[in-house]
Amino acid sequence: MASHNTSTSETKNLLDTSHDTSHDMSHDISGDLDDSEVDKTAMETDLDKLHKKKHDKVGDHDKGDKSHVEHDTKDDVETEEEEMESDVEKDEKYGSLELDFCEIDKDESAAGLIIPDAAIDRRRDGDIDDRVDDLTRSLLGLEGGVEVTPMSASRRGFRKYNEALKGALPIRFKKSAAEEIPSSTAGFLSLMTFSWQTSMMWNIYRKGIEHVQHMRIGPREQSHTNSERLRRLWQQELSRRGPKNASFIRVVLLFIRTRFLIASVFILLTVAAQFSVPAFILHRLLSHLNSGNLDTKLGIGLVVALGAMELGRALFFALAWYYNYTTGVRVRGATMGLLYQKVLRLRNLGDKTVGELVNLLNNDAQRIFDAVVIGPLMLPGPLVLLAGLIYMLWLIGPWAFVTVGTFVAFYPFMFLVSHLTNYYRRRCIVITDKRVRMMNELLTCIKLIKMYAWEKSFAKTISAIRAEERRFLEKGAYVQSISTATAPIVPVMASIFTFLAYVLTGNELTPVIAFTIISVLNSMRFTLGVLPFAVKSVADAKVSFKRYKDILLMDEMEPHRWQVFNDRYAVVMNHATYRWDKEPVKNSDKNGKGKQNGKPFRPGQEENERLHSTDTGNGDVTFVDTPTLRDITFNIEKGKLVGICGSVGCGKSSLLSALLGRLINVSGKTAIQGSTAYVSQQAWIMNTSVRENILFGEEYDEHRYASVVEACCLVEDFGDFVDGDMTEIGERGINLSGGQKQRVSLARAVYSNKAVYLLDDPLSAVDIHIGRHIFSQCIRKLLKGKTVLFVTHQLQYLSECDNVMFMRDGMIVHAGTHQQLMAEDTDYSALIKMFYSQDKKKGGSQESLEGRPKSIHKQFSVDRPDLMRQRTLSSGSRGEPPQTHRQTSVMSSRTMSVEEEKKEQSGGGKLIVAEEKHQGRVGLPMYRAYLKAAGGYMVTFLTLLLFLVAIATQSFANWWLSHWLNQGSGNTTVTDGNLTYVSRSISDNPNLHFYTSIYGASIGAMIITTAIRAFIFMKVTLRASSNMHNLIFKKMMASPMKFFDTTPVGRIINRFSSDLDEVDVRLPSASEMLIQNMFLITFSLVIIAVVLPWFLIALVPLVGFFLVLNAVFTSGVRELMRMNLITKSPVVSHVTASIQGITTIHAFNKTQQFIEKFQELIDKNSCYFHLFNCSNRWLAFRLDLISGSVVAFSGLCVILSYEHITPAQAGLAMSFAIQMTGLFQFSVRQAIDCEAKFVAVQRLMTYSKDVESEAPAVIKDKRPPADWPKPGEIIFDKYKMRYRDNLPLALKGLSFKIRAKDKVGIVGRSGSGKSSLGVALFRLVEPDSGTIYIDNINIATIGLEDLRSRLAIIPQDPVLFVGTVRYNLDPFGLHKDSDLWEALEKCHVKDTILSLELKLDHMVVENGENFSVGERQLICMARALLRNSKILMLDEATAAIDTETDSLVQQTIKDTFSECTMLIIAHRLNTVLGCDKILVMEDGKVAEYGRPKDLLQSKTSKFKTMMEAADKQGESVVS
Predict the structure, then answer these.
(1) What angle do CA 536, 542, 543 make, to 5 degrees?
(2) Distance between CA atoms of 726 and 707, rounded to whole angstroms?
(3) What DSSP character marks residue 1059?
(4) How far does Cα 1090 stand from its chain's mean position?
(5) Distance between CA 1440 and CA 1408 in Å, rounded?
(6) Spatial separation of the C-alpha atoms in residues 318 and 1182, rounded to whole Å
(7) Is-contact 515 1208, C-beta < 8 A?
(8) Cis preceding-peptide flag for 532 (omega within 30 of 0)
(9) Residue 1312 and residue 737: Cα distance in Å, rounded?
(10) Which is the most buried residue in 76, 96, 607, 1178, by most CB within 10 A?
(11) The most confident of 895-909, 1182-1196, 1430-1444, by mean pLDDT
(12) Residue 636 pairs with which residues in a beta bridge?
């Protein structure tokens, strides 16, 4: 590697702009050739020839590196946008980069650093691109200026609908594949009746849900197909309108326009059939009844016509739902797929969090689906009103305007409801995101929270957020409840207003007119009834579309725009300056919570849940002027090993991030020649087998795999794992020790066989001897010939690097070979000499132990339990959970025989417990639990009584009208000239005022009861959901750590996001409609039966048919809903893991692999989701047949008994029968839907009943003294511990004593049981036997809070929470600012905090990502200082800190904690040499325990062996 200050011209010569090669047009137009008139064969031949020629050239050009990043994968739209940019915009965006090969400096070419042929090749490639475009446009008959896209080609005809139009055939005999949903090959009749699902529903009832577990969604509903189409439409929208004016709603409407129009036609046909029944058939029937001369044949004919119209209505409605459901599934899969793809391409997530993304992919995607499915039902409303107006104008004249006016007045009301719903939804969703984000943070850091006894603090925070969320939920729920309750009473109110006005103005109101109008209004009830849901769905979706657009417009990662064309060099940077932030960011608000502005973000150490996050605050705009990296210039030759060192926060990790493209290039040039592999400072591990983690999608090569495993020192670990390298690793590697995780991560990189390796301090988490083995056998030997950038704090390895770079304040201040830098008077040489001299004084040295690890393995044997071990001491950062990096592996055991292992292990290498899947109906206990949470049986009874009264007032109004009409004139005689007769007009009734008063008063009764009922129902249901949330949250927080180890975070988050949303919003909405409609149906059936007793005979078989349907097929609906919920959890887990590992995914170029996995999971969930919705419609259609039969039988009873009933009674019965049309099936479907949604209640309540609890937080009669522990003496007495009952012992009969104020250094190889001591001390796992005494108190006899709150730990993986620096130091607000600054000063991080504009009020983003790992460790140390505990445990607390800072911190520890008892787990031997005692752990036992002086004098001491080897290594560093 040349010196870092190599001349600018030389470095510039190494760089040339990367050329964009065109897309493979044959792929883009392959789906549309059927639509054109061209000769397909000729076209493909010409295109193939051109592309082959072009790709041969590209292949020759990139022959040296198969994995070279190809820039021809950019979208056509993006290329077009780049071409449209002005020169000024290019200068602003790319600085001084020249994008045209013609502008290459002649001197650069002459220098030989740019391959001359490359420019020629690029010109030739450009010519070929132009010829491809010209040929394609010519063949497709397009104008020269028209952009060639699949959409433009497909518009030439309707052939793209060929496959869809096959569904119009009445019957199709083609069978679908056995594993595919049959709807894709079903005929028109089967689609209309959902008959394609009949056998499936029957098999689920007989054989269980396993019958459909093999099924997959149809190809036209798959996520890949639809997300790609939506992506193209979105790109076209951006190119036409620009980011600011682009509308994602418009894009989705364009996506669904054809199917939307078809579904709308069927909806209109449904409404037309529904309107025709009362308007024409019933009116004719009542007219004949009123005349008194009914022709029976004509009456039966009318009844037959009535039944036929009902059948037609049911068929058209079912078909409309089918189209809406399939369209909704496509949009859901497309939006989720598009969002996920966008997230994987982002440079950072801005102010977005994992919680928000979970909501977007769960709740918001569901709301978009609801809008697509239910939204079209708004459209018939105006048409129905117009038809009703015309019809009633013909029937009653201008008084029809009263009716229509009432309906029209309902629309502004619904507009207000929509506005309020939208407002409360937007307010609520922000709070929900915050709650889910806090839950995610809590679950991620649960280990540290438990050890610090911070459960109450976090519970209080979550409860406060939940209370605020509930406040907006209540307001939104009340508005929605009023809307839901108002819709059914609008027709009743309209009829009351109309009839009162009509009668009181002297008009004659007959039963024919009255009940025809009531029946017409009842037929319009569905259109109005669904309106609140449609409006709410569209309002909710509008918010979701805005949230989706926000993410879709965020900046994506861009590949380096320069390429190295000199084969000598692999990595080149020329005066490169980088920063994390691009735009001006907001400062602070009045609360001190503002945007980040004083500190560059540095996510170099890996895998964040939020790649780059800020808090949203209001304030003045301040520009971030300080770049993260400044004026970086270097040339790294191929095959060189370059060591990078420097103090904490100097920019080492940021340098690697810049090379990976994660920083914004402010100026200068950067290029990498060859593919890259990346090892993060904190390992990212997937929830899969060890082998799959290493292969990472690559083909398995046995020889290469074996050599990699050996070089990374994993052979013995694999031998000890339960299933070898096929053993499952838990989420975020919870069942691996820190060293094992780092070695697996390194093995993944080495196996990938890339050209350039970026290693971010990979040896900080491994033992001394393993670190030496990995450096010599892996980095030096196996990666020989590869280009390696090796960031490290382990100074002893730098002497063996080809070159060294020393960084400070974002700049490279020294560069050269180790010998050159040591010979000069540089900061680097001073650091090395100071480091070695300090070790000499202590009688030891820094790190490594020479020799092969095999012998060391024999010397330091390990206890590895067979199956799984829970997380231990260290708390994760950047998305990793709290876990100790030096823990005993949870997957292995060296103490059990094979026979014992087989006997003990029931799950093999499986760690994650399968999600519970309940069978059968939701039991009564779940309903009782919900009612109890709502307030008990009395509250439930009163709520139902309010529903009864509210519905009774509606039915009473119609009954009172019938009664009034039956009274006629009240036998009033009327004289007309000389003729006197008894009047039949109700206007002549002397009690007219009485009847109209009662009839009008019913309106007031309806309004009052509706308002009260809506308020009470809202309060009761949200009380239930909030009580359930609090109950399960409290239960979960009291769960032992093994629950969190075996339960993926995504699964728990799914309960608190998706399932809770079901209970918060959807269950109350569905149950409200159900209760309301069931009372309506009950009143309808009672009135029909009273008027027409013969109807009861027909009702018996209908009820029997209904009971059979309910018993047999509702189980299928329920099971499909259950599987829908279960298959959501893997989606959440995959998204979370992807974001945590996004840097690694990008570095290894595995984005497409993760997208395909996501699409697979979405398609699996979509299959059950679609089947569940279709099963609802399957049942609804058959219930529609029952309700149609009710109408027909009612009409038949009227015909057969017309002599015994009055026209008013007949009209009353028929109006209620028609009211049941659609209402019955809707109600039964709502009942099933409610039961299905109670699955969410069941899943929530599982955590309150089935999860065991750890020991009490406080035992009142066993509380220790207030000043305990005072001296700080610790005694382990024959202590044994195992992590779970079926696992072998992790600690095996430990007996030793730590005197008060002693400093005990704990050493041993990974997995020896060092961190298990901390697990035992904090009682994260209860003992198998034995006792631990602290100041003569058995810690097992006191409460966990009393114990943990008196101890302190500084973990290796530091945990910072979202909030201010002050909150992270002092979450309970117990200390003064002066105390905080003093602690920060002692930990040598005060200057860092002072440099921030907001100082202690500076916001810490999620996982403390805006601080380096070293800075986070120092802040955590300051937090421990403030805790002022008498017993302190340090678990590799300075592993990520540079040597100079480490020495200062060690002195701080010595001075500040002089009165404390300390347990120091360390791999740096110099950190424990000054301890009073050394404890050497081996195989879960105490191998040695004594003073360092005594151990070093013993010839057989293992500690002495380590020190002697370390001394030799230290001498080689200086030399």
Answers:
(1) 100
(2) 17
(3) I
(4) 55
(5) 15
(6) 10
(7) yes
(8) no
(9) 10
(10) 607
(11) 1182-1196
(12) 571
**Burial group, residue 966, by CB count within 10 angstroms (0-12, 13-18, 19+):** middle
Reported pTM: 0.65
pLDDT surpassing 60 at residue 1185: yes
Residues 6+ apart with CB under 8 A from 693: 685, 686, 729, 744, 748
C-alpha distances (whole Å) from 593 to each of 391, 618, 762, 1366 are: 62, 9, 35, 12
Please report the beta strands in 459-605, taking only residues with DSSP state E, as ranges in sequence order: 562-564, 569-579, 585-586
CA distance 508 to 506: 7
Distance CA 717, CA 1195 (A): 80
More confident residue, 857 or 726: 726
Q: Which amino acid is at 1383?
A: A
Which residues sit opposite 1492 in a β-bridge?
A: none
Q: Quick one: which H or E segment has residue 996?
A: helix 992-1037
Q: How far apart are CA 956 and CA 972, in angstroms?
A: 26
Count Cβ atoms within 10 A of the Cβ of residue 278 and give its class: 0-12 exposed, 13-18 middle, 19 or more buried.
buried
pLDDT digits (tens, 9 = 90+) for 992-1027: 888 899 989 999 998 899 889 888 998 898 899 888
SS3 437: helix
Identity at 1265, one-letter amino acid code = P
Kindly state the average pLDDT of the residues 1421-1433: 84
How many Å apart are CA 714 and CA 747, to the nearest integer? 9
Q: Which two tokens stand for residue 820?
A: 């050159």
The SS3 assignment for 875 reads coil
Note the Cα 1237 to chain centre separation in Å. Answer: 20
Structure tokens at 1126: 């279960």
At 1020 the three-state DSSP class reads: helix
In angstroms, the CA 1084 to CA 1076 distance is 12
pLDDT tens-place string over residues 192-208: 888 888 888 888 888 87
Spell out the residues 6+ positions from residue 1417 whose beta carbon is closer than 8 angstroms to its own: 1354, 1356, 1358, 1437, 1438, 1439, 1440, 1441
Residue indicated by tokens 């577990």: 213
Burial of residue 1244 (CB within 10 Å: 0-12, 13-18, 19+) is buried
Q: Which residues of 355-367 are buried (b: 16+ CB within 10 A; e: fewer)?
A: bbbbbbbbbbbbb
Q: How many residues does the chain have?
A: 1519
Q: How confident is the model at residue 808 (pLDDT cuts 50, 70, 90)?
A: confident
What is the rounded distance in angstroms from the CA atom of residue 673 to the CA atom of residue 561? 12
The beta strands (E) that lie in 474-593 are given as: 562-564, 569-579, 585-586
User: For residue 739, what are its two tokens?
Assistant: 């060293």
- Cβ atoms of 468 and 431 closer than 8 Å: yes
Cα(1492)–Cα(1464) distance, rounded to whole angstroms? 14
Give the largest Cα separation in the chain, rounded. 141
The two three-digit tokens of residue 1234, written as one number: 């409610």
Residue 1277's DSSP bridge partners are 1331
When pLDDT is cut at 50, 70 and 90, the band that residue 12 belongs to is: very low
CA distance 800 to 779: 11
d(CA 1481, CA 345): 45
Distance separating alpha carbons of residues 1095 and 1464, to the nearest angstrom:
85
Residue 289 has phi, psi (to 5 degrees) of -65, -40
CA distance 1426 to 827: 33
Asked if 768 and 737 touch (Cβ cutoff 8 Å), the reply is no
pLDDT tens digits, 362-410: 778 888 999 999 988 888 878 888 888 899 899 888 988 998 888 888 8
Calpha distance 433→426 (Å, rounded): 11
Question: Tokens 């439930």 correspond to what residue?
Answer: 940
In the sheet that holds 787-791, the strands lie side by side as 676-679, 756-760, 787-791, 641-646, 803-808, 811-816
Rounded Cα–Cα distance for residues 418 and 815 (Å): 65
Q: How far apart are CA 52 and CA 56, in angstroms?
A: 6
Tokens of 298: 């004509």
